[in-house]
Amino acid sequence: MMFMMIGNMCRWCALLLVLGAFLVTPNAQSKPAKKKAKTTAAEASPAPEATPSLESKAVDILKAASSRLAAARTMKFTAVHFYESPSRQGHPLAFTTKSEVTLQRPDKLRVIMSADGPASEFYYDGKKMMAYAPAENLVAVADAPPTIDAALEQAYHSAAIYFPFDDWIVADPYKEMSEGMNLAYYIGQSKVVGGTTTDMVAYIDHGVFIQAWIGAEDKLPRLLHAVYLDDPERLRHTLLLSDWQLDPAVPADTFTSAKAASVNPMPFAHPHPEASPGTEPAAKGKPPKKQ
User: Beta partners for 188?
Assistant: First the structure.
């Protein structure tokens, strides 16, 4: 029972971020009426230019951010996730999680998460992964594959563990998002987020509409808003990324926990065992919509 609480809490972190973004569509200007021409030939208006579905400027910004993160052997950052979930009365309630993230490519990851609900810790050292609930002193342990990407995939399918920043810590973030991308466009610049100038881009990735603020100079993602396009309630999700450190020194014992390792372990298990094994999520690589 307590492990299901761990699974449900990890699943809390699972919703991707979202807020609608504004599409800027130029208004067509009406032309003044022409004087009646002596000829009967109609004057055809030129056809409007089609807007490319993947604008090169937006794609270049996303590729640059991906390359910057993929090149880092070690990485630390803070992720604060704000998201809405419907209450029993039907009103959307806002919840928050804060994750302190440390990774070392290709096979080590630690996520220390505090939240409006129970805190949790996740450790992956290239051989084992552990989900630990410190308040309850419970831990789930499983053998793990040899890369961060594969471990994240296994954690999701076996225990519904998903982190909203997953797409930015895989080996090739742009490859991951581009496989499901069918729209990307540039919005403009902002000087509000992260104390620096950011480029704003919007894109659709595996059925999720995302607006991203990415540092114009350092190419680091600072803020993401997202919404599931097939969610009739259009619940909002926001991810604030800060305190970036690329290639910091990381102590060897960062990716294990002696306290968690001392607890009698239980196996990883899906919080919804009624789901058929191998069932694909609604959107590849993303958490399913709320149950």
Answer: 200
User: 255 burial class (0-12, 13-18, 19+ CB within 10 angstroms)?
Assistant: buried
pLDDT surpasses 90 at 51: no
pLDDT of residue 194: 84
Mean residue pLDDT of the chain comes to: 82
Amino acid at 102: T
For residue 242, give Cα distances in angstroms to 162, 169, 191, 195, 239: 19, 14, 15, 10, 10
Q: Write down the pTM of the prediction.
A: 0.77
- Report if residue 103 sits inside a domain: yes
Domain hosting 159: range is 2-17+53-267
In this predicted structure, the answer to whether residue 46 has a pLDDT above a threshold of 50 is yes
User: Do the domain assignments include residue 23?
Assistant: no
Query: Backbone phi, then psi, for 98, in 5-degree steps?
Result: -130, 125
Contact 84, 235 (CB under 8 A): yes
* Tokens coding 112: 């220390």
Number of domains into which the chain is organized: 1
Contact (CB, 8 A) for 205 and 181 = yes
Give Cβ neighbours of residue 22 (< 8 Å, ≥ 6 apart).
187
pLDDT band of 3, cuts 50, 70, 90: very low
Does 118 fall in a domain? yes
113 falls within a domain: yes
Tokens 């998002």, located at residue:
177
DSSP class of residue 286 equals: S
CATH number at residue 214: 2.50.20.10
Per-residue tokens: 199? 């480029």
DSSP 180: T
In angstroms, what CA-CA distances link 257 with 110, 112, 133, 141, 154? 10, 11, 12, 12, 20
